[in-house]
Every structure is written in structure tokens, then in C-alpha cells.
Amino acid sequence: MQFIDFIACAFNQITNFVAKSHYRWGAPVPIVIRGPAGGGVHGSAFHSANPEMYFVHTPGLKVIYPATAYDAKGLLKSAIRDNNPVLFFEHKFLYRRIKEELPQGDYTVPIGQAIVRRPGRDLTIVTYAAMVHASLEAAEQLAREGIEAEVVDLRTLLPLDRETIIESVRRTSKLLVVHEDTRTGGIAGEIAALVTDSAFDDLDGPIRRVTSLDTPVPFSPPLEEHFLPNAARIAEAARDLARY
């Protein structure tokens, strides 16, 4: 779908028919809906949105949002082989920017399995898609200051890998959630509730989040830069949390 912003035109078909077909009569629905999403390319309000949470809220769907070429290929193969409907978000800022050599043979990446991109002891940063790279950049800045941040890449938003998140928070005792989606209703709130329910006694500070602003994505490049999270803001929030 070009661009994913226009998935709203198919919202009824996806949420009321595709997502519910297996529940209603047991029929498999092997559909993969791909689309470029996200900002940072000056595409304005109609070509830069991150509408993933509309669908994370919909039982019956799977939602994938990879950050690397390896994961994009492996998760896409897993999605195609899955009998459930899968929404596959591709962050357009990463196109032609993130490159790596991929195995020649066949491989898949499991749906619903997060990965620790960088180990750390002082706090956990949970994120996905383009913000993985911004978070890793922030973690490198923090390491030079003696703060070791663990970076967890969700890769899949639905189903959410709760175990990896909880295990990381129990190691570090602090949590910062970063996403490019707007603040209100973003997955940071769901993750905060999960950690509060399952690892509250392990926390040694408040759960913090770094997100985009609650506005449409601006067309003006300076305004878009102000709108989006970046490594400096992530590092600042992590620094404050580490000192708590």
C-alpha cells in the first residue's frame, strides 16, 4: 500500500472482515499488507504517519515493524507463511539508508520475538523501527558518560514479546520507551502498564517515554525535526532517568 497513511481507506475491511474471519468461522486469512510509513523524509501529514496502533488494538491481526534489512526479509517471509492477516510496516526513512549483507539461503525471523540490540545495566530502552537506530546512537553517547543503556528492538508489536521486556527491566530496574508514533495512545502506554503489572517491584524509577508530538506530521523540515524524537532527546531522557 503506497503510502501506509491511506490504509484508512481499507479500515473497515481490515478490522471488521479480515481480522475477524478466523474467529467467526475458522477460515485462515493468509494476507500480508505492506506499506511505507514514518517521517523524516519531509512527506507532510499525508505521507509520514505511523498508524500502527489502530491495528495493534484489533484482535485477529499481527503487526510487524522491523528496523533492519535482515529482519525485514526474515519477518516478511514469516508473514507470508503465516495463516493470519499481517500488517507489515516499513519505515521509509530506512530505505536505502540501512544496508547489510544478507544470507543467501532461506531464513525466517520469528513473529512476536523481540531482540536485545545492545546490552546494558543502567536502564532499558524499548523501541522499534527507525527509533532503534536513534536509540542506539543515544546509547553510544551515554556509554561515553558511563551510562550503559540496554536497547530492546520489539520488531513485532502484535503479538508483543512481553517476556523480553520484563526480563530486561528486571536486569536494569529502569524503563524508557521510545516510539515515533504520537504520544497519546502509543504503545508506550501499553508497555508501561505491562511493566507496572508484572515488574513494579523491580523498578527503581518512573517509567519515561520519548515520542512524537500530538499533532499531524508537519511539512516544514524544521517543524518536522522538532516534531520527531531524535538521539539527543532520547539521551537526555535516559540521562535524567539514570540519575533518578
Task: Please describe what this structure looks like.
With 244 residues, the protein is of the alpha/beta class. It folds into two domains: 4-94, 3-Layer(aba) Sandwich (Rossmann fold); 115-243, Rossmann fold. It is 36% helix and 18% strand. It has nine helices and nine strands. It has helices spanning 11-18, 21-25, 52-56, 69-81, 130-143, 162-172, 187-199, 221-227, 231-243; strands spanning 32-37, 62-64, 86-91, 115-118, 123-127, 149-153, 156-158, 175-182, 208-212. It has a five-stranded mixed sheet with strand order 4-6-5-8-9, with helices on both faces. A four-stranded mixed sheet has the order 1-3-2-7. β2, α4 and β3 (86-91) form a beta-alpha-beta unit. The longest helix is centred in the middle third of the chain and has 14 residues, at 130-143. The protein is globular.
Fold blueprint:
Elements: H1 11-18, H2 21-25, E1 32-37, H3 52-56, E2 62-64, H4 69-81, E3 86-91, E4 115-118, E5 123-127, H5 130-143, E6 149-153, E7 156-158, H6 162-172, E8 175-182, H7 187-199, E9 208-212, H8 221-227, H9 231-243
Parallel strand pairs: 1-3, 2-3, 5-6, 5-8, 8-9
Antiparallel strand pairs: 2-7, 4-6
